[in-house]
C-alpha cells in the first residue's frame, strides 16, 4: 500500500530474510530511512509530506513483483533492484 514502513519487515524481509548476508536492504537501509522520514514527517511542509508519501509508495510498489511466490532473487539482487528504484522514485 505504500503507507507504512512496516512493509519492509512484514513483506520484503519475510520473503528475503537476508540478515546474515550483509545485503539486508529491508533492515539495514529501507526501514532505517523510512522510519527517519516518518519521525520528522510533521516537520515537512504539505508539499514535502506529499513527496515523502509518494516516494515511500513508489519504493515499495517497485519491489512488489519481487515478493511474489514465483520470484526468487538472491539477497544481493534484491539490494541491487531496490537501489535501482531510488533515483526514479526520488525525482519523479
TrEMBL record:
It comes from the Eukaryota. This is Uncharacterized protein. The lineage of its organism: Eukaryota, Metazoa, Spiralia, Lophotrochozoa, Mollusca.
Amino acid at each position: 500500500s505504500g503507507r507504512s514502513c512496516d512493509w519492509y519487515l512484514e513483506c520484503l524481509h519475510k520473503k528475503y530474510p537476508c540478515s546474515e548476508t550483509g545485503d539486508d536492504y529491508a533492515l539495514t537501509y529501507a526501514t532505517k530511512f523510512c522510519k527517519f522520514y516518518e519521525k520528522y514527517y510533521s516537520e515537512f511542509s504539505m508539499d514535502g509530506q506529499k513527496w515523502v508519501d509518494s516516494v515511500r509508495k513508489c519504493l515499495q510498489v517497485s519491489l512488489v513483483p519481487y515478493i511474489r511466490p514465483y520470484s526468487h532473487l538472491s539477497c544481493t539482487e534484491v539490494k541491487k533492484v531496490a537501489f535501482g528504484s531510488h533515483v526514479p522514485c526520488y525525482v519523479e
